[in-house]
């Protein structure tokens, strides 16, 4: 369904079951230079099959929306989270731990937003 060709850093988003990995933390302690951050205060994995457009309400604090545009072969994600720290989501072919995930982590530090793509 979506393959950048970078198998060393990216997880292929494919038709069929995958896992959405989510996490957030109550403090903003992500180091944007190294990508290191404290262990999450909330986390989980949700099995899901990607379709053209959907919204997943993980809990009262975390919602994830996405749309796949076949014409441009692009995914568009929106994450809405109530937290005062950082937020993350990832895709994976397996559940458990943080190994082998392709994650986006973002937050706001001193009034300035940041977002990054991290692989573990």
Oligomer: single chain
What is the global morphology?
A: globular
Continuous helix count: 0
User: Residue ranges: pLDDT <50 for 5 or more in a row?
Assistant: none
Mean pLDDT: 76
List key phrases describing it.
single chain; 120 residues; mainly beta; 5-stranded antiparallel beta sheet; 3-stranded antiparallel beta sheet; 0% helix
Q: Would you kindly provide a written description of the structure presented here, covering whatever features stand out?
A:
The structure is a single chain. By secondary structure, the chain is an all-beta fold. It has strands spanning 17-24, 42-49, 53-59, 62-69, 74-81, 87-92, 102-109, 112-119. The chain is globular, with a radius of gyration of 14 Å.
Write the layout of secondary structure elements.
Blueprint: E1 17-24, E2 42-49, E3 53-59, E4 62-69, E5 74-81, E6 87-92, E7 102-109, E8 112-119
Antiparallel strand pairs: 1-2, 1-6, 3-4, 4-5, 6-7, 7-8
Compact overview of the structure:
It holds the Pfam family DOMON. Helix content is 0%, strand content 51%. It has 120 residues and is mostly beta strands.
